[in-house]
Structures are given as structure tokens and as C-alpha cells.
Recover the amino acids of this structure.
């Protein structure tokens, strides 16, 4: 996720662009840049860090002009540097663009363009400027269309050309773009918030659309250059609602982001024909990978539950003994780590002090140390010798949601990569990848049940205690569901493996103590079913998570949420979503501050 703002009109563009970037800072804030046409030439400024850094840098600079583009970046390809900040230019400096999304085939395109093109950044985006350069024969729209025909991936794209100061091209595929309509002027934004101060009239571009905008008009075509009629909408949202894309809270938006960011996490990282994952960032030779005899996953909170899912994956798919350590414990128990141990630090923020300190300890003891991190260029990303970015985009709600599912996906790809060089068969690798490709669509099916889950949450809003039960790979999901409930509703809850209940916790059960049980169809289904029978016999209310088509689930409970079937090892990617939604809706019903729950911080940089 990144943010784009562009302006074409008669006003001074710079304040519009900078204020617009501030509105979009929630989409990414590792670096920013702006370019404005001034006397026939693009003048630009870039800076690492927040928009304020760019604004300070621009103080005193004369970037006057009425045609410009700006971008706030959330790094995916290429580190956090000024050179990698957008906008990017072609070799002539006449074409300038800002891009959100991922160009999957950028390496092939670069190779094809050859050595005659000079690149100033390590980004995938820059290749687009050069591609447009070679197709440009005087018609910018045609050149963009021809370039896009060559691209595999996603984009929200705005392109300008210094010889066409009354033409701006915008295109969308998978990354949102909104056009704001003023009086002989147009605004573009990744959402409507940058333009709300100037206009309420907007047009939302759809995937596969390219629009050509002058000061006087806009004309939209599809990728085959056929005209598309667009409706002007009057926007009712205020700025905060626009940033949340109409969702009432960032947390709900982030829960609903999951199908999209899951696709981002896996895109281009596997080969179906070979049934294998390719995580180049791991930075390990085949020989080094073969030498790994033990995996240790270190993390805190939600990330540690993703790690527990990862343990199942590494052991089942790769056959490598795997341990999970809560980072704050790891350092103080003199862990046995050697040069045949692979240690992963898993962290959304990449700044968690305990995780960082534990990784340093592991490094000191000679292990391979790698990161599974969301924030590009964060301390953990920099201090490890390689790793996997989870590509979840900025997560702003304090309670983590989409980072969990993308961590699990990253761990799965790692386990698959190790599995295929160890004992995992081609057929299993392929089956797994086929099933993984279906996950984003299955996530959508679950998200459609949000209203039903809301009704359930409201039904249980007066309960003061909850149990979450799961077994096998779903036990960490129960832990994560329980943590979500605690964090954002302040209701007491505990998670147990189903089989543990009878060893003590069952004493707590009563009609006032509901149990949320994960009983999807997998190898432990019958065992879990028996555990739920035990709960039923104690008259505790049961909320059941079951697999679509499980007719017997209704014998155990009235309140059932059905999820689509998938391979057992992938179940956490789906099963966690109803639990996230349940906690979210319950917190809203209780009037809690969902995005900023009491006593918590998004990034825990103290021990
Ligand atoms: C839970 C939550 C925390 C974090 C934990 C680790 O919703 O957000 O438990 O998961 O503080 O943070 P990161 O992943 O940034 O290291």
C-alpha cells in the first residue's frame, strides 16, 4: 500500500499535493516525493520518512506549477531510500509517474528493455516509466495502454509528460484510484480524502480502466481502448471515513483487506509446476538450507500465535523439529542454539524490543537469523541476514488482524520451500499451492457473513468470560481469538486445546460461560467433537466454527459459523477471520475504542 495524489488545474499544485499526502500518510510513510511541471520541466523533491520531512525539505524551494504528482511510499521492492521514493522518471526525464501495487514481471521487462535504459532506483515501478518511454510516439494514453498490456501485476498509476501539460493519465488494476472533479481542474487520490477539502464530486475508477484527464474533461477507456461510461458520485464521507474506505474502524477495514493482501503475500513467490515456493529474500544457499536441523520461531503476541501455526507447518511439511519461543522468555533461559539452527524473528512492526533482543542473542550464538516482517526497512528487517516481507500493508488498528494471516502465509511458503528440498512430494506441494491460491476467494465468502457474526456478538455481549477451544493447528487460532477478545472488548477469555478442558478448566463452565469452539473437518474432528460434547453436558453456551456441509454440527450447537473447506494446514488462514469479526463486533456493541484499546500501543519498543 502506498498513496498517490495528483492535480491538474489552475491552482498552485504544491499545497494541494502536500496536504493530500498528509491525508494518505496512513497508507505508508517510509518515504515521499513530489514532482511539479515548472517552465516545461519537472522539478521534484524526495525525502525519507514522514511527509513532514518532505515538507521541511521543500521549505524555500520554488516548486510552482499547476500540474503535479506526489506519492507516499510503503516499500515493497527496494529499501527505504530517497532514490526508491516516487515519482519515477524515464531516461528523458519527460515522463514521470507514481505507482501503487506490484509489477510482478519487472525483472523480465528490465531485461527486455536492455542496457540502454538507466535506472535510478531498485523499485519495480520504475520499469513502467521506461516501458512507456519506448511505446511513446506522441500519444501518451496509447503509450500507457501499450505498456500496461505488457505488465503482470497490480497498479494504481498516474502518468504525466512534460510535453503534454494538459494531459494526465491514470490507470487502475487492484489498487484504488479516485478522481475528484472541480471547476476546470481534477484531483486524483488513492482515496477521496485528499480532495474532500475542494470537491465532493468524484468518480471511482474500476479495475482495468485507464482515464485521460485534461483541465476541461476526462475520458475513460478499458485496456482495449474502448470507451467506458463513468458515473459521478456525490461523496458524503468525511476525511476519516474516506481513509477507512467507508469502514467505521481501521480494524474492520484491515480485516476486510485480508483477501487482497493475502494475494499480495503469495504473488510471484511460488512455482505451481514444481510445487515449490521461492523466497529469494531468505538469502540461504541450498547447502545451508540442507544443514538446518532445527527451526526456532521467536515472536510476541499475535505474531507468536502465527509462529505456533508455523511450527505445525515446518514439522508437517518440512519434517524439521520446530520450537516457538515468546521473545521475552527466550533470552533469559540460556537457549540451546547452534550453527544448524534457523531462527526466525516474526514481527509486524519489525521494531518489537523483545524480539529484536532475542534475535541478537540467537545471532551471537551462531544461528542463521532471518526475519518475517511487515514494515520494510524496520530494525528487525535490517538486523537480520535476510527474510520474508509479509506485504500486509500498513496495519493501523492496534489489534493485529491482517498481519496474522500474512505471517501464516509467509511461514507456509518457508515451510514449503524447506519441505520440497527435504521429503515433501511434488504432488503434495502442488496440492498445497492450488489450495493456497483459493484462499483469498474463500476469505471473501467468510467476510460476507460479517452481519451474521455481528448478531451473534450482540447476543453474547453481556457475558464476562469466554473460552476459545481448538486442537492441532487450530489451537493457535483459538489463542489468537482469545487475545483479540481480551484486547478490544476487555472481556476475560482463555484459550485451551480441546483435550485439556477435562484436566481442570472445565470446572469453570456454567450457562454464563460461553465456549467458542473450532471444529472444522480435519484429522482431529472426532476428537474435537467429543470435547465439545463434554462442554455441552455442562450446559455452557457453544458457538461453533464448522466446515460448510457439516450436517452434524447442529446437533451440538445452535450458533454456528460455517467456513469453506480447505486443506488442514491452511485452515488457520480462514478460521481466524470469524474470530476477528466476533471480537470486533462485540467491542463495537460495548462501545469500546476499537482502534485504540486502553493500555496498549501498536509498536512495543520497550522491554
Ligand atoms: C495483538 C498485537 C500484539 C502484537 C505484538 C507483537 O493484536 O497486536 O500482540 O502482535 O505486540 O508486535 P509485532 O508483530 O509488531 O512484533
Amino acid at each position: 500500500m502506498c498513496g498517490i495524489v495528483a492535480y491538474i488545474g489552475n491552482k498552485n499544485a504544491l499545497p494541494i499535493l502536500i496536504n493530500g499526502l498528509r491525508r494518505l500518510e496512513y497508507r505508508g510513510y517510509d518515504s515521499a516525493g513530489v514532482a511539479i511541471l515548472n517552465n516545461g520541466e519537472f522539478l521534484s523533491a524526495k525525502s525519507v520518512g514522514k511527509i513532514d520531512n518532505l515538507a521541511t525539505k521543500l521549505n524555500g524551494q520554488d516548486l510552482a506549477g499547476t500540474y503535479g504528482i506526489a506519492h507516499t511510499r510503503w516499500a515493497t521492492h527496494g529499501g527505504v531510500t530517497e532514490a526508491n521514493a516516487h515519482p519515477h522518471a524515464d531516461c528523458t526525464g519527460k515522463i514521470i509517474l507514481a505507482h501503487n501495487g506490484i509489477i510482478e514481471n519487472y525483472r523480465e521487462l528490465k531485461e527486455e528493455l536492455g542496457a540502454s535504459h538507466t535506472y535510478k532506483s531498485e523499485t519495480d515501478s520504475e520499469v513502467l516509466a521506461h516501458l512507456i518511454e519506448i511505446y511513446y510516439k506522441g500519444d501518451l494514453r496509447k503509450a500507457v495502454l501499450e505498456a500496461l498490456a505488457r505488465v503482470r501485476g497490480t497498479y494504481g498509476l498516474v502518468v504525466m509528460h512534460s510535453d503534454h501539460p494538459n494531459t494526465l493519465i491514470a490507470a487502475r488494476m487492484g489498487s484504488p484510484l479516485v478522481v475528484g472533479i472541480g471547476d476546470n481542474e481534477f484531483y486524483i487520490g488513492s482515496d477521496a480524502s485528499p480532495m474532500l477539502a475542494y470537491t465532493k464530486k468524484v468518480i471511482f475508477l474500476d479495475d482495468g480502466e485507464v482515464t485521460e484527464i485534461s483541465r476541461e474533461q476526462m475520458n475513460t477507456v478499458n485496456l482495449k481502448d474502448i470507451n467506458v461510461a463513468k458515473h459521478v458520485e456525490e461523496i458524503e464521507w468525511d476525511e476519516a471515513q474516506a481513509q477507512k474506505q467507508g469502514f467505521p474502524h481501521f480494524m474492520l477495514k484491515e480485516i476486510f483487506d485480508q483477501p487482497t493482501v493475502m494475494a499480495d503475500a503469495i504473488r510471484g513467490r511460488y512455482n505451481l509446476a514444481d510445487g515449490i515456493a521461492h523466497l529469494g529474500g531468505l538469502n540461504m544457499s541450498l547447502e545451508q538450507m540442507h544443514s538446518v536441523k532445527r527451526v526456532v520461531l521467536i515472536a510476541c503476541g499475535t505474531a507468536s500465535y502465527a509462529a505456533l501455526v508455523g511450527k505445525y507447518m515446518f514439522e508437517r511439511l518440512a519434517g524439521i523439529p520446530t520450537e516457538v519461543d515468546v521473545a521475552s522468555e527466550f533470552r533469559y533461559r540460556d537457549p540451546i542454539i547452534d550453527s544448524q539452527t534457523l531462527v526466525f524473528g516474526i514481527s509486524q512492526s519489525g521494531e518489537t524490543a523483545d524480539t529484536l533482543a532475542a534475535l541478537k542473542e540467537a545471532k551471537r550464538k551462531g544461528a542463521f537469523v532471518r526475519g518475517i516482517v511487515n514494515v520494510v526497512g524496520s530494525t528487525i528487517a535490517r538486523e537480520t541476514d535476510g527474510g520474508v516481507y509479509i506485504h500486509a500493508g500498513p496495519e493501523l488498528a492496534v489489534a493485529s488482524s491482517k498481519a496474522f494471516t500474512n505471517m501464516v502465509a509467509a511461514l507456509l511458503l518457508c515451510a514449503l520451500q524447506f519441505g520440497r528440498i527435504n521429503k515433501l512430494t511434488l504432488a503434495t506441494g502442488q496440492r498445497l499451492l492450488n489450495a493456497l491460491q483459493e484462499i483469498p476467494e474463500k476469505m471473501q465468502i467468510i467476510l460476507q457473513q460479517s452481519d451474521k457474526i455481528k448478531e451473534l456478538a450482540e447476543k453474547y455481549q453481556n457475558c464476562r468470560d469466554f473460552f476459545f477451544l481448538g486442537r492441532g493447528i487450530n489451537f493457535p487460532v483459538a489463542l489468537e481469538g482469545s487475545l483479540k477478545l481480551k484486547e478490544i472488548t476487555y472481556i476475560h477469555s482463555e484459550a485451551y486445546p480441546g483435550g485439556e478442558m477435562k484436566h481442570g478448566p472445565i470446572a469453570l463452565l456454567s450457562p454464563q460461560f460461553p465456549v467458542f469452539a473450532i471444529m472444522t473437518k480435519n484429522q482431529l474432528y472426532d476428537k474435537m467433537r467429543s470435547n465439545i460434547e463434554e462442554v455441552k453436558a455442562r450446559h455452557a453456551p457453544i458457538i461453533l466454527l464448522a466446515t460448510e456441509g457439516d450436517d452434524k454440527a447442529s446437533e451440538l450447537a445452535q450458533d454456528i459459523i460455517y467456513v469453506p473447506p480447505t486443506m488442514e494446514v491452511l485452515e488457520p488462514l480462514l478460521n481466524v477471520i470469524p474470530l476477528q469479526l466476533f471480537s470486533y463486533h462485540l467491542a463495537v456493541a460495548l462501545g469500546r475504542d476499537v482502534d485504540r484499546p486502553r493500555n496498549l500501543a501498536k509498536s512495543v519498543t520497550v522491554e
About this structure: Residues 389 and 577 are 21 Å apart (CA to CA).
